[in-house]
Amino acid sequence: MHNDNINAILQQLDTVLLGKPHQIKLALTCILAKGHLLIEDLPGMGKTSLSQGLAQTLGLSYQRIQFTSDMLPADILGVSIFDKEQSQFIFHPGPIFKQMILADEINRASPKTQSALLEAMAEQQITVDGETHSLPQPFFVIATQNPSEQSGTFPLPESQLDRFMMRISIGYPAPEAELAMLKGQDSVSKAQVLPQCLTQLTLQELQVMTQEISASDALLQYILALVNASRDAPQGAGLSPRASKAILQAAKAWAMINGRKYLVPEDVQAIFPHVSEHRIRPFSHQQGEALSAKILNKVNPIL
Q1: Strand 166-168 relative to strand 37-40: parallel, antiparallel, unpaired?
Q2: pTM score, whole prediction
Q3: pLDDT tens, 49-60?
Q4: Cβ neighbours of residue 86 under 8 Å, at least 6 residues apart?
């Protein structure tokens, strides 16, 4: 039953982001693992279509926030305004109060504005003027990031990058997929009218089932060996304990999508680059790729 739900989601999203089944599968993996997703690519690659398609398919309220250099934290979180009639400050929620947020071109905003998302992503709540406000559940952030060499960008600090469970790139479509795009309906318009495949209760059930995927002690030792290898690497920062948990959670979700109730090394290997590269890259995306591949080649699973 639940495998049918997952297959329906993947097939439906494939009509919006043509020729990218692997990236769609990775994005759904991140959602089932209760993680936030960073999409790093050039403009116009389908990042908005994918995020809106996910929200429509999963039945989640959706808000796109366009990040700009002059944006302030209050533009995201909301602001307290004094009400003369009530003689008190009334909080007016910002656009972050939706279940799925697309933080579009997040690295065009200043570090101060970027940091407005930290508490929301880690604790599903925000604090404004000393008062805490809970965010809708479930709560996911999908952020898009332009390549750092483009003008007008601020690099995301390590603390912000570590809040994202996974990072993916969509890349250019294959010629046949791009031809189908030219002949078909605009992908953003199509994403806005996709039918809902899941209720929120079913989504939460899938997330619980993901957590219940079993992992042997040997598999856990394999994950720890990968993490420790990253900490021994001469370049870049080693993976944090939060990253260790993210690898396990994402691998469980990947196994779930593939119809298994237990982890195998291939599950860890499939998601490891996408969980690790944005955390360990010292200066560039390419070096992060090289380090993750080196770590995977260096560490052999002992099962």
Answers
A1: parallel
A2: 0.87
A3: 888 888 988 889
A4: none
Exposure string of 177-186, with b = 16+ CB inside 10 Å and e = fewer, is eeeebeeeee
Is 130 exposed, middle or buried, given 0-12, 13-18 or 19+ CB atoms closer than 10 A?
exposed
| Structure token pair of residue 295 | 């770590």
Q: At what angle do helices 265-280 and 21-32 cross, to 10 degrees?
A: 90
For residue 278, give the nearest of 143, 185, 152, 128 by alpha carbon: 143
- Burial (CB < 10 A; 0-12, 13-18, 19+), residue 257, is buried
Instruction: Please enumerate in sequence order all residues whose Cβ is within 8 A of that of 36, keeping only pairs 6 or more positions apart, or say none.
Output: 30, 121, 140, 141, 142, 143, 163, 164, 165
Q: How many residues does the chain have?
A: 303
Structure tokens at 216: 């042997």
d(CA 299, CA 218): 13
The pLDDT tens digits for 130-183 are 788 889 989 999 998 876 655 556 777 777 788 889 998 887 777 777 777 777
* Other Cβ atoms within 10 Å of 6 Cβ, number: 19
State both tokens at 31.
Answer: 């959602």
